[in-house]
Amino acid sequence: xxxxxxxxxxxxxxxxxxxxxxxxxxxxxxxxxxxxxxxxxxxxxxxxxxxxxxxxxxxxxxxxxxxxxxxxxxxx
Length: 76
Prior knowledge:
Strand content: 35-45%
Largest sheet: 3 strands, antiparallel
Number of helices: 1
Structural class: mainly beta
Distance between the termini: 18 Å
Helix content: 10-25%
């Protein structure tokens, strides 16, 4: 992920390969009210990692819905 300053706003660019994206869309969609969503968070690191990256993304994983309820998500 790269961080870019544009018009006084910091924008974090996220890149994912097509192969990984297809896997994520297959395995990590979260059901809510009959629709599927990809849920992820981006957090800033306290200091850049060994590659100079300043942010990390976390993708929520699919969790089976309890009987009579809506599905929930868990963070990986």
